[in-house]
Amino acid sequence: MIKIFKFLFISIFIFAMAISCNDNGQTNIESNKSNQQNISNLNESNKNISKIQPNTQTVNSGQIGIWVNGQSKIMTEPDMVEMSVGIESTSKIVSESVQTVATDHEKLISILINKGINKNEIKTSSYNINPQYKYTKDGSELTGYKVSHYSSFTYRDINKIGDLIDTISYGPKSIGDNLRINSINFSIENPEIFESKLRENAIIDAKNKANEIAQFANVILGNPVYISENSPINFTKQIYESDIGIARMAAAPSTEISSGQLTLSFNVNMGFSIVK
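^ thats the sequence. predicted structure below, dont judge the formating
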């Protein structure tokens, strides 16, 4: 009987050990699989990093060198003027204001054509009808309607601008008190003829600046690696409304408008390499 118990005890012990070994073997196999998967993921991650790195390493390499701004200017006299002239009328009845403005506008067109201005170059820039109110502590009261008609045109006989202003501002055929002069802009009809020289001088200026910087820094200047231009700047010179008013008040017997000179400017940005 004792021998039977010993045999059963030994058999149970051997069976338990076998199960334990199987569990540990399975765990080890799964652990090995997990480790292999982690290694595979790490290798794949390294591959992705190696694909990205070459692009990120080249950032800012284009900033190496000497970067300068070149400028050029030319003084010249304008050969045309662009004017903005308006007619305004206020009346208690809107139809009266509209009629007054229409009549004065016909006078204006007639004067401009007689002065040699091409009708195709006269255009309406704005037309407005606005109610006018008087504001009191008790509220607002409608006092009338203001109608305005603004036109713009090009005038090439710039030495006779004062005479043109006189003709439309006073006299038997003038617009009179309803006239408004909004702006006078002197300009050049064909600014393209100056562009080539402006561009050349701007590039020469940039090269001179770069050579000077290289000399001061004790380096050798290389070839241009970047060029960008800021082309034609402002080819107009404006006389503001306040200045026009002063000129008109001083008119006795005629108004004088001075065109002066225009400053044409041009800019280029250039980058040069450095020879080490």
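Confidence is low (pLDDT under 50) at residues 5-9, 18-31, 45-61, 240-253.
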